[in-house]
Amino acid sequence: MNTNIGIFEANYYLPPTKKTLSQIFEDEEKPTEAFAANVDFEKDIGIEALHVAKNETAADLCINAAKLTMAKSGIDPKEIDLIIDFTSIPEDYVAPTWSAAGQVQKEIGATRAFATAINTGGCASYQTTLKIACSLMSANDRYNTALLIAGDKTPEFNHNYFPITVVSDGGSAVILKKNMTKRRILGVEVATLGKLHDMWFIPGIHNRDPKDIGGKFPRWLHVCGDIQRFNKELIPVNLFMFRKVMLSVLKQVGKKMQDVSFFIYPTFSAWDLKAFCEAFKVPPEKISTENLHHGHLQETDMVVGYVDAIEAGRIKDGDLVMLATNGAGFSWGASLIQY
Amino acid sequence: MANSGILFPIACPENPDQAAAKLCTRKVLHVDNASLQYPCAPINLMKEPVGILATACHLPAHKCTVKELFQEEGINLSSDVAARLGIEQVPIRNGQASETASNMAVAAGREALQRAKVDPMQVDVVVEYSIMPQEYLVPVWNMSNKVQAEVGATKSFVVGFSGGGSSNFMVALSATAAMLSENDSMKTALLVTGDATIPGNRVLNPADPVTVMGDGASAVVLQRGAPGSVVIDTELWSDGNNHDICYIPGGSLIHPDDINLYRMQLDKVRYDAFPKGETLRRMTDKLLERAGIKFSDVACVLCSNISSQDEAAMQQAFEGKVSPVCASNRESHGHLQGTDFPLNYLSLIESGSVKQGDYVLGVSHGMGATAAVSLLRC
Fold this sequence. Notes:
heterodimer, A: alpha+beta, Peroxisomal Thiolase, Chain A, domain 1, 2 domains, B: alpha+beta, five-stranded mixed beta sheet, four-stranded mixed beta sheet, 17 strands, 32% helix, 22% strand
């Protein structure tokens, strides 16, 4: 793969309204299942408040992030060749029939671009999309600039993703360009365990339970997790899969774990972050933590972690940065960037 | 197409593999700018082309006539509408678990792998290109993960594409060919879809019907260095101004509660105004120029099975080169969403009407609004 493709610019947009965690737990349904990890989900999560979009649609969050990123980059929207939506939760209209990619194309005036969407990977859709975008750009001379976008608006009263995290609303965008000498994407690795496909899903209106009609909220749009299987089938393999994708991407580019200067990791929870750091012997100074106060932002976590770490001066020129995450499917992804 | 390591002249008119060779020139430019100076310089760093190893479709055995479906959905089937559609019957799921969208996709995937004689363990990526809503809400859930598990492609990872309508297959084809070509660790891909139409929503735009949708699934095995049809190139186009030309509003974030809106809706005025034939022909000319071949070199064109009216527009845009298999499949199966191209491609190969080395174009327009053209060499 052409290794001169790099991250030209990245940014994110978070709606200004915030809701405290205690308010979230008060408003939303409390799960009754036990969580295998030895933690108190509500007390130990490490997230204090969430961003909640009011009148903004999920596409608005996408568009706002795209516009902020375009403005920061100084790139003319007409230069963009590809737009790829990597949103990982349901959007304004039903997928896969519709995606926000076309609406973003329209709103930012990227008239030359081809717009499409990647709809797999959950929070790891960032890595899946990087892999596709880099492959398309590497294989085609005509694709020089790509805009990756995401916008997540959680259905009302579904911010509690027990036992994983609590989720914020927000959007992000990343501009990839060829012929970069800095911030180059050295490699991307994705792995999926399809046997876990039905452990985490949203039923949809076609599967709604008649007793939910007219209720406080559209329960059929809420995430359903099989906690028993989560405990038995996911937790035991999670770190193994992280190790697999990280070692694989390091091998692709001839590097070792100790060569990694900084890790970007999702903001699922404080205990999840601790488990990752302990498993891979990552000291606190080498991993993103600034973003924890935003709450978990699905696939956008990767962008928020990257942007916040740069702004905090934690990533320096030449640093080898590992972005690693997991997501629905279940999927694991790791990408390496030479900053 | 030859394997890696064989020397090919670039852009030599007498070279039967000119299009593929020209395509590969780009790879050389990154490595050796000297080759730019010699139009017929040998390429010795050319990557293996990506080709179609096998294709399979899985269609429900049960069929309904268009007349029956119009009656069921309370729509008048006039002779004018019947003639414009050119669809006699469509395959319909029988309601059993074996015919969910994902189970049909699993069946098609297994069949394609068997035909390709590929061990599922050798599949590097499963790529999904469906159009209709799946068993659970996409993108949190996607059938590709289930397909991965059920066909036993345990080494692979999965990717799915949204928003391209009938162009989704070619988006998937283009992205997969790029992945296999550009990643040394990847060689084999399984492309798969299963589309189940929303019950009571088989006639698109009842006020002025545009197509009749059936249920079905398909799968294609792509491999770097495959001896079958070579994927030369794909041209993709989208017009974001028409992002909402066709969509399903009900059950989404904007209309979470309204089951009556859980159906595919089309803005017919904007759909008709979208210059489908002209756009696809312009894209084709651009693609062919890039590949270094003329339209007269193209043996035939495969289009989507939307309606006889749509096919007539394609025939006009493509100088009568649309293959008769499209009309035949349209009449007997209707519009099968993502499966239209694999079905037509299979029929074309089985018909024996194309020979080795023939160029075949696949053209499609879909919601988004998108348009796509793929060039294959058989």
